[in-house]
Amino acid sequence: MVWLNIVIIVVSIALTSAILTQNRSAGLGGAFGAAAEGFHVRRGGEKRIFQATVVFSTLFVLIAFAHLFTG
Predict the structure, then answer these.
(1) I need a labelling partner for 14 at 20 to 30 A (CA). Which of 8, 40, 56, 64 fits?
(2) Which are the contacts of 39, defined by CB distance < 8 A and separation ≥ 6?
(3) Counting beta carbons within 10 angstroms of the beta carbon of residue 2, is it exposed (0 to 12), middle (13 to 18) or buried (19 or more)?
(4) Could you tell me the residue range of the domain that residue 9 belongs to?
(5) Is residue 26 part of a domain?
(6) Cα-Cα end-to-end distance for the chain
């Protein structure tokens, strides 16, 4: 059970860093009705960071459910 705690801590740190390194050009203004840029295609490193964020978030949810049901 201790190893599951360690794994979820490592995945949560990786998920947090992946989220924080994403580039948000719209900023907070997009949430309050500022003009949007339109369609944006992710390329290169930005695409890899986005894919890593999806993988880390999926792992986090799966590990959280595993922790819930094994405890």
Answers:
(1) 40
(2) none
(3) exposed
(4) 1-20+43-71
(5) no
(6) 8
Using CA atoms, how far residue 44 sits from 17, 49, 51, 62, in Å, is 18, 9, 11, 27
Question: What CA–CA distance (Å, rounded) separates 39 from 10?
Answer: 33
Residue (of 14, 10, 22) closest to 48 by Cα position: 22
How many whole angstroms separate alpha carbon 67 and alpha carbon 31? 34
Inside any domain, residue 11: yes
pLDDT in tens, 17-71: 999 998 765 455 555 555 556 667 778 888 899 999 999 999 999 999 999 998 6
User: pTM for this one?
Assistant: 0.75
Domain count, the chain: 1
